[in-house]
Amino acid sequence: MAYQQKLAEKLTVLNERGRGVLIRMKHIKTVCSDPQLKPSFLTEKAMEPAVKYINKKFPNIDLRGNIVSTHQNLSGVQKQKSEILVALTSYYYSFIDVMEFRDHVYELLNTIDACQCFFNITVNFDFTKSYLDLIVTYTSVIMMLSRIDDRKVLTAMYNCAHEMSNGNSDPSYPRLGQMILEYDHPWKKLTEEFGPHTKSVTGAVLSLHMVYPRRNLGAEQWRSAQLLSLLSVPADMLSPACCETMPCEYLPMEVMERWIILGFLLCHSSLNTNQASQDLWKMALRSGLYITLIRDETINIHKVTEDYFDTLKGYVPFCVSVCYSGAIHKEKRQFLRNAIKELCKILEDEPGLLGPKALYVCMALAFSRDEVLWLVRHSENVPKTKTPEDYIDSQLAELLFYTEKLKTLMCRHSRVLQRYHLQYLAQFDALALNDTIQNMNVCPEEESVLMTSFVSTLSALTVKQVENGEEFDFRALRLDWLRLQAYTSVAKAPLCLKDYPDLAKIMNMTEFHTKMMDDIDGVLRETSDLSILCFYPRVFEKMFSQGCEDVLMQRYLIAFPLVCSHFNQCTHQMCPEEVSIEEHILRFCVTFLEEIAKQTCSIVLEICAEQCNLDDQLLPKHCAHTISTARNKKQKKQVPKKGEPTDQCDKNRGKNHYNLCHNRNINTSARKHMDKLHLTLTELCSSLNYCNHFTVWDHVIIPPEYLLSQLEINLAKVIVRMANYNKATHEITRPSDLLAGIKAYTSSLYTLSRYLSVDVTRLVKSVLLQQTQPLDSQGDQTITTLYTSWYLEGLLRQASSALIIHCPTMHCFVNQPNENETRFKAEEYSDVSELQALAELIGPYGLKFLTENLMWHITSQVSELKKLVIDNMDVLVQIRSNFDKPEAMTNLQTSENVLKRMTIIGVILSFRAMIQAALGDATLSVFELASAAGLSCDIDPALVTAIANMRTDGSSLEEEYKLTYLLLIYVAVSLPILAVDPNSYYSREYGGHHNNIHCLATAINQLSAAMFTAQNKNIEQHLKEFLFVASSTLLQLGQNVERTDSKNRDSIYLLLHMIVEESPFLSQDMLEKCFPYALLRNAYRDVYKSSIITLG
Fold first, then answer.
1. Which of 251, 549, 614, 670 is most buried by its number of CB atoms within 10 A?
2. What is the reported pLDDT for 629?
3. Does the pLDDT at position 709 exceed 90?
4. What is the DSSP letter of 701?
5. Is-contact 514 478, C-beta < 8 A?
């Protein structure tokens, strides 16, 4: 009879099916509770009459009765019947699944009662557990169904749409509607249903009276028994940990409490008649306020009990005080932290002990999980108490960390566990089981076949199977043991399991040993699954933030991301719609890791900043102050003469002593601060360095990469902040100072590799390479952008106004002597060392960006010059033909403007030449970047490209060519005007003119070469023409000796010489043909004679 009922198979299948149905009900409740997720038909205003009508008439909605009323109320359903059918099908058939699940549970429970099955958790553990799980799962499904507020609307609206589309109602609807009505008050209906099953349920629950009280001890009793300690009895350290009820030792407390509370609520009659039932019930109630149905759905057991028992006559209130439960569980967590830490340390040092002490590990994981889940349930709903701190645990990170570490040890040393338990199974369990079978008086054929297969399977195991890496699979053996429990637990069975407790003991132990062989992951899920935390986001995040605030807990923070790897266990194949959970879980994990990385990054950069300050004090700019201070300290104190009062000396001595003590206190405080930073860094890096990687929902997570990402983002911000650029005042840090600061930061960052396995070189290269671009990876400005802006707007703009002078002698820019106070010294930002520092900071790519901006300014000036040439084109054409006639030049206008713009171009090109020289060591093979790499070119490729891109759509190449050579004529005939400017005099000290007109040489040579190259014309020919015209006009200037416009004539002569010297296309021979060398010699003599040189 028992063989035909297949009780074991049905319990297994129905429990799995029930879990899937339960998760579907939870999903429907979640969707319907969210206005953004629930079906639109339930929220549309046009559907409100239909929703109200269905709720009022449910379940009897007659579509053929009052046609007018029905049409008015259900017109919305009629219009959207097709869409409703599609949208509500999954909801409707989920409720059908509940109904079918209920039918199968009814049938199985009746069959079990008819068979008068025997249940005892310490004997037929799997059979009893499956039975109690089925009762709790069924109750939870019904409770979840009753919590779906829209259940009536969902089922009835679907049925209306079905009837409107097909002409008849869905066949399952009448029974489904009746079921939903019956469970409007679920506890009343459930207790009626379980009345006939009271004997079986009560018997199964009462079998916990030997297990639950032993598991529900306080921390003091655990401590006195030295629970989980391997060192309490050193002689027994190698002895295998085993007992008569091995599976019960790591059975979750929450599971047992659900069995007890829900079981006695469903079958409450025994509470008035059985003292053992009352004791067990009260003990479970005293443990807490809430039990879990599924995920974050809980029951306030005291409130439910009071409300239900108040409706019954003859029942006394069975609620008990739980005011101390918070303190009890707090003490338990404190004990477990120390006990599991000790267990981890021992097993980490001696992993061979994992074999004999595997049960201890499972117990430790289960106990920790029980306390964490209790805290999670009650943290969300803290009761009114005088000690709310009992429901807050800032040190939970440590407990989670060592729990994860125990799991890691079990997985890492799985071969150790397999080797040990294989020998245990083959050399002890098989022999003990065989002896037990031999001592049986009665052994029916079916049972004999099963037990014989157990012995043969275990006896065939050899150590070579582990050494060869074979995969073990004992699922069939465990299922056969469940079948055997079912066969031997029915009334009138030929072989009653309760008469052979030794068989149950050895088989329960064997089952545990087989799990250590092939299902370590399953045991770890059973004992340490914390996936419920996924559904308590506020509690989970609060626990993490509390751990972040405690320095001693920071090394354990990695436990929170690791716990996220449990969350993929919370889904079920019957609810594939829960795709958003994956994103939710990953967001949890990433948020935690980013927060740890941010804290670590903050500490690292603070240490770097302190080191940068120390390095800054050693820079040469502080040497004068340092030398002065050291010199003052060495000065000897004056000894007072005999007879003079010593009050002043005593006063100075006291003052010096005070200053010394004050400085010493400051130094001590600074050292303490740095020590604290390094301690915090050690703790955080220990957390990030705990594991190289782990997996969360098929995503590989690498914790150190999050730190590198944060360092990359924040280091870039620090570098930009160190530049200290103020756009309003045009202030910025000197490139050499910024470079020194970056080097200080970099050297400090390399110390991070002592704490953590990270590639600091890759980090620094990535950050500095981004700083050579206009924008970094976050879209923020870089130092390349800031320095480009400053040199253009701060330095070159003032140089264009002759407030700053280009000084070829010193290879820098210098400030023009001025009564007004200048904001910065140009030479401190433009000398060779500063520009080399700038080149090192922004590199060739940054220089290319700077060049592009310089070229933009040059092309802007060229555009204006072309306009001036066009305005004076007729005059320039005449001058070109008659440049030896001065009267032809009097018609020219805006000559000063032409020279001014050409000077600006010369200043920009001179600055660019200085930058190129600073970057002379870098080389690139691409011609377009050759200039940016510091290679000298006769014709600037960047300038050629910029000029070529200037050509307008309407202009022809010949027109551009004409404008170019006329521009040279324009400049040549305008040169004499410079003699009028009092600032046009040449300075021997600077090696140039005080109004920067010496930059005209650079502008004329490079601009003409670029423009004629872009137009594919002969450069040398046109420069010779320029030289002839310029020489002619300047010689005419020399004829007017008495006029004021010849005041700086000699300085202008030198300009002509500079043009020839800097040009790769002109030579001194060409110059002498059109301009007497004697004039140049005399000009140099007169200019240098007038210069005042001071020596010493």
1. 251
2. 76
3. yes
4. E
5. yes
For residue 775, give the 3-state DSSP assignment.
Answer: strand
Separation between Cα atoms, residue 188 and residue 186, nearest integer Å: 6
- CA 943/CA 1006 separation, integer angstroms: 8
**Distance (Å) of CA 929 to CA 678, 911, 922:** 45, 18, 11
Q: Give pLDDT tens digits for 293-325.
A: 999 999 999 889 888 888 877 665 555 555 568
Phi then psi for 936, rounded to 5 degrees?
-80, 140
Q: Which amino acid is at 41?
A: F
Q: What is the pTM of this model?
A: 0.85
Both tokens assigned to 813: 């820019």
At 40, list the tokens.
């639109």
- The Cα–Cα gap between 749 and 770 comes to 18
Tokens describing residue 18? 């029930």
What distance in Å separates the CA atoms of residue 583 and residue 562, rounded to the nearest whole number? 16
CA 649 to chain centre: 63
Q: Cα(268)–Cα(262) distance, rounded to whole angstroms?
A: 9
In three-state secondary structure terms, 726 is strand
d(CA 941, CA 947): 10
Rounded-to-integer distance, Cα 387 and Cα 185, Å = 36
Residue where the block lists tokens 């106070």: 821
Instruction: Please name the residues in contact with 232: beta carbons below 8 A apart, sequence gap of 6 or more.
Output: 226
C-beta atoms surrounding 872 within 10 Å: 19
Using 50, 70 and 90 to split pLDDT, how confident is the model at 105?
very high
Q: Which amino acid is at 906?
A: G
Which structure tokens are listed for 319? 């609620």
Backbone phi, then psi, for 805, in 5-degree steps?
A: -110, 135
Residue with tokens 């050494």: 467
Summarize the confidence of residues 961-973 as an average pLDDT: 89
Residue 289 · residue 301 · CB < 8 Å: yes
Give residue-wise pLDDT tens across range 834-889. Answer: 999 999 999 889 998 999 999 999 999 999 998 998 888 888 888 888 766 666 66
Separation between Cα atoms, residue 534 and residue 566, nearest integer Å: 9
Q: Give residue 1092's pLDDT.
A: 54
Percentage of the chain exceeding pLDDT 70 = 90
Cβ-based neighbours of 733, under 8 Å, separated by 6 or more: 722, 723, 724, 725, 741
pLDDT at 922 (0 to 100): 43
Asked whether 961 and 951 are in contact (CB, 8 A), the reply is no
Query: Residue by residue, what is the 3-state secondary structure of 464-508?
Result: HHHHCCCCCCCHHHHHHHHHHHHHCCCCCCCCCHHHCHHHHHHHH
Distance CA 258, CA 263 (A): 8
Asked if 901 contacts 999 with a C-beta cutoff of 8 angstroms, the reply is no
Cα end-to-end span (Å), the chain: 122
Q: Among 125-134, 238-247, 318-327, which stretch is predicted with the lowest mean pLDDT? A: 318-327
Using alpha carbons, list the distances in angstroms from residue 832 to 838, 914, 939, 1070.
10, 8, 23, 34
Separation of alpha carbons 566 and 584, rounded Å: 13
User: What DSSP string describes 111-156?
Assistant: HHHHHT----TTTSHHHHHHHHHHHHHHHHHHHHHHT-TTHHHHHH
Q: Which residues contact 863 (CB under 8 A, 6 or more apart)?
A: 950
Q: Which residues pair with 600 in a beta bridge?
A: none
- CA-to-CA distance for 572 and 578, rounded, in angstroms? 9
- The owner of tokens 């660019």 is 912
Task: Provide the mean pLDDT of the chain.
Answer: 87
Both tokens of 663, joined, read 């400085």
Q: For position 297, what pLDDT does the model report?
A: 93
CA 295 → CA 21, 114, 1014, distances in Å? 14, 34, 74
* 821 CB-near residues (< 8 Å, 6+ apart): none
Of 627, 620, 610, 849, which is closest to residue 734 (Cα–Cα)?
620
Distance CA 95, CA 405 (A): 42
